[in-house]
User: Fold these one by one.
Assistant:
Number 1:
Amino acid sequence: MKRIVRIFALVLSLALLTVPAFADSTARTLDEIKESGKLTIGVFSDKKPFGYVDENGEYQGYDVYFARRLAADLGVELELVSVDAPNRVEFLTSAKVDIILANFTVTPERAEVVDFALPYMKVALGVVSPDGALITDVTQLADKTLIVSKGTTAETYFTNNHPEVKLLKFDTYTEAFNALLDGRGDALSTDNTEVLAWALENPGFTVGIETLGSLDSIAPAVQKGNESVLAYINSEIEALASEQFFHADFEATLKDVYGDAVNPDSLVVEGGVITAE
């Protein structure tokens, strides 16, 4: 009997060791980040022009430009970690990254589980579709297939407001846009800034609905309660307004994509203060 008990205890201990750790981990404070000499930021690797990996294997984009400045001003090395829309919250709660800078739209639901800093961009939803069957009004999507990425505001908006639209969901933006190219859906919805950029680079597709839903803000996010890192980000956003940093970011990372199709003031937020265009 004792031998059986010992075997059972051993099996149980081994099983506990192999169970994935889903419990939340405590995020690093600003002092701990400074001491380590490295700031870890989660960004997209496939959402051009906001966060993507270029042909040389280097991260680029509007979010990445800001990430580099945050690390430089803190005087530490920057480590960029690729995230997907569905796992942005998990990467914060599990302390896999210190900050998320992955085109993260502020919503009341998300604000319950992460802390958002001041906004640095504003955005609404848009819908892109083939020129031969252009969608110009949301009513045209009834009983049609709309492609969305999981964990995005587009998924939430259409689930809550348009149950008549069939949603085809993907984990990554690359998969979603490839599905549109392959004709697996009638249209695709995500941030209007993203669909506008994608349509400009993909002839045969047009953003027939440029603004849908409410005007939202994009902001950095940290683990809930990480006050020191949150305060640092906010102080940076406020201080960078004096040099119009995010307009410079737009010029460096977005201007070549959008050309004259997008007014920088329709997207850029300086000093964390959202103003009319």
Number 2:
Amino acid sequence: MEKISRRQALQLTAVGAAGVAIGGCATGNSSRGLLLPTEKKPVLTIAHLTDVHVKPEGKAAMGMRQALRAVHSLPQRPDVIFNGGDAIMDALATSKERAEEQWALWKQILREENTIPVQHCIGNHDIWGWQRTKAGTTGNEPLYGVKMALEQLQLEKPYRSWDRAGWHFIVLNSMQERGDGGYKAVLDDEQFEWLTGELNATPKETPICILSHIPILSVTPFFFVKNIVKDYRFDLIGALAHLDVHRFRDLFANHPNVKLCLSGHDHLTDRVDYNGVTYMCTGAVCGNWWSGKFMDCEPGFAIVRLYADGTFDNTYHTYEWDPKG
């Protein structure tokens, strides 16, 4: 797949009757059919930066800075940044002090390198202490779990919604704690009921964009791990995409104004069009956890342009950064 650099503006497009999927390191444009690059003016331009995984060691901090500088140097500066989650390298299995050190670095770089408003989504690695043995947690700490990320990002809840530029935006919390110290990608009943209410309350003529850390629907899990075929069956990890995808499908079928679902988590890019909804996983700023590209995908970010008629386009941008330089 071709990739988009700061000096390029190439795009890929794809369409299918029931659904299509594109993998690699660039995603194409539009919703509900083939739309070639257009001269119509977007009502909102989003820079989707996901999976930064910043840490004090190595060149991660410089990589985050370079990515933000690349966003700010675009010919048309985005209106908003969507932080897709996993802002820091890891809080799941670290001490409180180590997690707070990473958050302090994240916030410092944002202050120094960014002037664009940011909307945050929480990722699994932003959650503190779920791996209790390694983190030294009991589960009773005041900032245990998602609470530390909420405090650091100054959020009241891990899921929320707002309206802007004629679109309705919804941020979801993909992760639920498992008893073994891990997590699973699923909405609990309370959040799903809230989501249902949000869709019911949104006028049918208002297009909806949903942001989640873990993909709701994606082909990327098929390439994320090796040896996933066992006894003529695919054996996919339930933390790489939402386990409740059937629930989402049935809900979205009643709301054709759900246009676009953005995600990260799997450090790869793809696009899946299914039943009128486009699902896009948009790579990772850190690539392969700051050691270069991850499989076919270079470190980068997505620029998503939304239009008044409910259509959109999307390009993946790499940026100048060398893990060995």
Number 3:
Amino acid sequence: MVRTVAVIGAGTMGAGIAQVCAQAGWKTRLHDAFPEGLEAGMERIDAFWEKGIARGKTTAEQKIQWSANVRAVSTMADAVQDVDLVIEAVPEILELKQRIFAELDQLAPSTAVLGTNTSGLRISDIASATSRPEMVIGMHFFNPVPIMKLLELVRHDKVSDATIEAAQDVGAEMGKTCIVVNDVPGFATSRLGVVLGNEAIRMLADGVASASDIDTAMCLGYKHPMGPLELSDLVGLDVRRDILNNLADAFDDESYRPHPLLNRLVGAGELGKKTGVGIYDWSSGEKVERTL
């Protein structure tokens, strides 16, 4: 049974995960190696709740209750002390995740489930940094975490059935629908999603149609709730690029490589909604078509 959770990494995903943990009623500690990142993560959670109040979807009383469940913690040791669950949500860099899991192996209780929110890295590679791979599981959340209902659980060869069941219970308590997939590059969702997004970027670069028309085609023609280009901006173009490169390396298949337009945007720091501009211009707070 989960009572206390530590979330490591206070970016868009980490803050969202901490938010849903707090809403589930768990004592939640949010940690980030960078103080400014930790502050921004807490502000992001507060802003989400304030927006919910303004839209009539959240009450002020709920915000007070949820806010009492989450706090910023400056050190990893304090964050993971006596926790039942740790969810790591740092950038998609294998060496970084391995370093964090080596620390968690020393700092977190031996009974704690160790989840990694990766969208494409091998869980077995991350779990290998610990002496307890049976307690490590992939927990792939989707952005925005408080809204998206799917939680993709990734099992590797050494994970225990008890850990998988515990993660499924966690997802259920969060109100998520869980699927369980095997530990292959890109899992189920990322492998399909990034390929679709990369092809949409290729179509945009080739002048097949405008970004908004490509997105509208998939929304109305295939009932996708959001078009692949808008979704790429929401997820982060750097995240999409990294997943594509990881797939290309893992499968030794150059067809997965990111389109040059995607590389150009990332190289320019135009990463999507989080930077105010990507495939679309988000600087006004709304999605606006731009010329690329």
